[in-house]
From TrEMBL:
This is Zinc finger BED domain-containing protein 1-like. It comes from Triplophysa rosa (Cave loach). InterPro entries: HATC_C_dom, RNaseH-like_sf, ZnF_BED_domain_contain. Residues 360-387 are annotated as: Disordered. One of its GO terms (molecular function) is protein dimerization activity.
Length: 499
């Protein structure tokens, strides 16, 4: 709500009813004092929180406000020490420069640096297929994952270029438009729905920027076909809009092929649970079941399924993307190596061992294999050595310590390889198990592999977090608040997303 809501008479009366003793401050107090102070406090808390983040993923995108002012949004995602997936909006920066990759690239680097985040700690950035975002990620040499939602949306749009589908979709849009601008037809539709005992659903309008909206439009027209036909046929001005049986056959073929895909897009768009490790299994499921030809399918349905699957295979056939998804599947206790190509399993295992060892070099030895003391421990040891030695009674365990050598004779690489093999041989987690809960329980059993899980399982499968910032910004920069300054927009979006 706008800040001047606190000066609304009705709101002030409500506060008086809740607590007559409370004196509600005016608009100026909130805009000049309260909100800036809250923003400063939350920013400081988040900055301290980010200091402990070892690895993170991000999403970023450009959007324009209602007043056509351009903004660059940036969100980051990481797994905290309690194995909870965190999603934070870092900024919604005013971006009046040209929206080229060459300009966006340093802008994203500066945004990370302003929060004390190193590029080396970024595992991956998830973006849509915009050429400027692709170029920016390439110039920064960042690993990039293409948004699954955008890819699936593009595949469905490709299907729409078929002449038969294009005509049927056009008829569908005209039907929806006829009901959208006529309250009489909406009234008659409700009457017809009762007559045919149909669900009292409104028709759905396609939105080019909303994933799956076309499919929802088609599905709703099929559901309400009888009622729609009766209402349109009753008016000679709209009689020509009644879908023919050929149009309905095409729409039903499209619906049969694409309807199951919507569930996967919605499921992979979450921010509070692991999604990236699902991509490999989902693509496998598409290939073997969802988009597999059935004997009951029409020829058009078969063609659509093949077209979508070929498009997805082409886009996810990149070696870099395939290896990234393989690593994410490997550290998911539900999937491990099940969806990795057999000839790539050893390569992925070797990469996992190498990355674990590099982590140890970057972060220092882990508690499980540390052999060097910290400066404080060395100082305490020297201080203890200066004191007179106190004779202690030997324990039975100390005798075994002398008899059993502490060095197992294994190199550190062999130790890491052994831990990885033990993890892979452990029973798979149930498909309904939340992988982060599993890792919280088994972190001490597989301490090195768990670090790799924290690194890869934080990656979002879609760029939905950035898309949600657009929605938040749209709710803030309304036609009644079109004069908000960019820094105020950034502050309000930050608080709306991070409180």
């Amino acid at each position: 709500l706008p800040i001047n809501a606190v000066e609304n008479d009705g709101f002030r009366k409500l506060i008086k009813v809740l607590d007559p003793r409370y004196e509600l401050p005016g608009r100026k107090h909130f805009s000049v004092t309260a909100l800036p102070r809250l923003y400063a406090e939350r920013s400081e808390q988040l900055e301290q929180e980010l200091q402990n983040v070892a690895y993170f993923a991000s999403t970023s995108d450009m959007w324009s406000s209602r007043t056509s002012e351009p903004y660059l949004s940036l969100t980051i995602h990481f797994i905290d020490k309690d194995w909870k997936l965190q999603s934070k909006c870092l900024q919604t920066a005013y971006f009046p420069e040209d929206h080229t990759g060459e300009v966006i690239a340093p802008g994203m680097v500066e945004a990370l640096a302003s929060w004390g985040l190193s590029e080396e700690r970024q595992v991956c950035i998830t973006t849509d297929s915009g050429s400027n975002m692709l170029k920016a990620a390439s110039l920064n040499h960042w690993t990039r994952l293409q948004c699954f939602g955008h890819r699936l949306h593009s595949a469905i749009e490709k299907v729409g270029k078929d002449k038969r589908v294009e005509r049927a979709i056009g008829v569908c849009k005209n039907v929806v438009s006829a009901f959208s601008f006529s309250w009489k037809k909406k009234r008659d539709l409700a009457t017809a729905q009762e007559e045919f005992n149909l669900p009292k659903h409104k028709l759905t309008t396609e939105s080019p920027t909303r994933w799956g909206s076309r499919q929802k439009m088609v599905s709703r027209v099929i559901e309400q076909h009888k009622a729609i036909s009766q209402v349109l046929a009753a008016d000679k001005k709209t009689r020509h809009l009644v879908p023919t049986w050929q149009d309905m056959d095409v729409l039903e073929s499209v619906n049969e092929a694409l309807k199951p895909l919507l569930e996967f897009t919605d499921s992979l768009s979450g921010e509070t649970y692991v999604s990236v490790s699902y991509l490999k299994p989902v693509l496998h499921l598409f290939r073997t079941e969802v988009l597999k030809h059935s004997d009951d399918d029409t020829q058009l349905t078969k063609d659509i399924k093949a077209m979508v699957m070929d498009y997805l295979d082409e886009k996810y056939d990149d070696d870099g993307t395939d290896s990234l998804l393989d690593m994410a599947s490997l550290v998911d206790p539900r999937f491990k190596t099940h969806y990795i190509k057999p000839d790539k399993i050893e390569t992925i295992k070797t990469r996992a061992v190498s990355e674990i060892m590099n982590m140890e070099e970057d972060q220092g030895p882990s508690t499980s294999q540390a052999s060097h003391q910290t400066e404080e421990e060395e100082a305490e040891g020297e201080a203890a050595a200066a004191l007179p030695a106190k004779k202690q009674r030997k324990t039975l365990g100390s005798l075994f310590k002398k008899l059993c050598p502490s060095n197992t004779g294994l190199t550190y690489m062999q130790t890491v390889e052994g831990e990885l093999e033990n993890y892979l041989m452990a029973p798979d987690a149930d498909s309904e198990t939340e992988p982060l809960d599993w890792w919280k329980m088994h972190e001490k059993t597989f301490p090195r592999v768990s670090k790799l899980a924290q690194q890869y399982l934080c990656i979002p499968a879609t760029s939905s977090p950035s898309e949600r910032i657009f929605s938040t910004g749209g709710n803030i920069v309304t036609c009644h608040r079109a004069a908000l300054k960019p820094e105020t927009v950034d502050r309000l979006v930050f608080l709306a997303r991070n409180l």
